[in-house]
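Re: that chain you flagged

S.,

Sorry for the slow reply, it's been a week of failed gels. I finally had a moment to sit down with the sequence you sent. For the record, here it is as I used it:
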Amino acid sequence: MSELSLRARFLLGIVFCVGLTLVLLAAWHIWAGSRTEQALLSEVMKTHLTLYEKVFAANPGASGGSSGRMMVYRGGAQDLPQELAALKPGCHLNVAYGGNPHQVLVSDLPTGRIYISYDLTQHQRRVAISWLWFALILLVTLIIVAVTAMWISRSIIAPVTAFATRLSNIDPRERNQRLGSDFARHELAPIAGSVDRFLERLDGFVEREQSFTATASHELRTPLAVIQGATEILTEQTRERPAAQKALVRIRRAAIEMSEFIHALLMLSRESQPDTEPGEACDIGEILQRIAEEQRELVNGRPIDVECKCCESLRVQAPRSLVTIVVGNLFRNALAHTERGAVVCELKDRALRIRDTGPGIAPEHMKQVFDRNFTTRPGGYGVGLYLSKRICDRYGWLLTLESSPGGTIASVTF
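Prediction finished late last night. Pasting the structure tokens below so you have them in one place:
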């Protein structure tokens, strides 16, 4: 019942109540009519009993008789049916003999036993016709009630349907959308007002977030540009100093990663859909190879082998910076949770799989790994997998984790 719509529940409720009321009224009417007719019949039979008692008293040799559907028999008479002869004094209902049901009154008089029988065939036929007419009237009434209830339910539910349609048509990319003016003189006005207040707060929150993101991006890009420019100058000035060159490469790489991260945050903060954004294709294999080479330098002497298997060339329609964040986060997580063994990356069948030989993820943590700020690593911030999941969801990619005590497999199906 809970799965039915509000209109269907209203319609079924009205039809059930009306139908039940009609059935009860008809049943009471037919039962009361039968009881009344039976009481009247009993009185008529008693009247005949009194009449025949006087007749038999005046003429002991008189025989019984008939009057319409009423039959009178004397005890011991040759025409007395065997079914009646076996009855004891009193009133008996639905005694069948001669192929028809009868109501029989048996009484002992000073002149002998007397049987008064009334044929109930016509009575039962009238009852059956009454039930037939009732069923027909009930069916017609229920149809009329159903049509009327459907019309009434549409009139009652129409504003709710219109309200739900207006809610579903709200475009999350547009601001300052309100519902109160459309339902100002309706019972839904308080709900529409509450929704408008919520939309107003939501608009303010989105505006503040977009403003902060744009401002922070602008303010962060300026020092990053300065850092990148300075590293290029220092790289030219320190060509003969390998140690300094190595440090500058790491600084330049960190600045590039930060710039890509800021670009990703800006894109995720926009509410446009991927199919409406300007297209940009990138090669997953090339990005994977570059990240693998960069991450090999972060092994820090641990006995870990980093292996890449690119079985195909895969290009996706997405900004390079976002793909780099997804692949980089999964790669860094695999290295961070592996003390010894191997980190193997495989690109095959439009899927990227990164497998490590770390301790794995506890089963109770599997449902939380994509939550923001959730981390099992000391000093971690719990942003990497959350951000990667958001990017994958935005572009329709499937990001999954499979973990066991022998390691974890992170898969992205493009």
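What I noticed first: Helices lie at 6-58, 82-85, 121-168, 189-237, 242-269, 284-296, 320-336, 384-395.

Talk soon,
D.
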